[in-house]
Amino acid sequence: MPVVSRLRQGFTLVEVLVAVFITVVALGALVSEAMVTLRRLQDSARESLAARLVRGRAERIRAAPCAASGGIDSSGGVDATWSATTDGQTVRLTQIVHYPTAFGDHIETYQTLGACR
User: 115 pairs with which residues across the strands?
Assistant: First the structure.
């Protein structure tokens, strides 16, 4: 009796389904990580903008004559409420920065003390 060898040509349906399933799971994980990274980049951009607002207001207060003042700076979804008080020799700048993040609202308070000009 001759032995008939069967040559394999192509993949079975089960092999194709397993490969598709693994590919879908891997792509899902990559998309999920990409979304987390994007949210963190957006949060980082807002944090950087908040720091620039705080630094800019501090520089403007230092360059101005000593006087009590206050206001709100707002840019790109970042709000900074500030107040400057003075005793005639020093000026105290208090800034409260508020901006949304992927994990909820973020609020920080900054205080700067400088000599009057």
Answer: 90
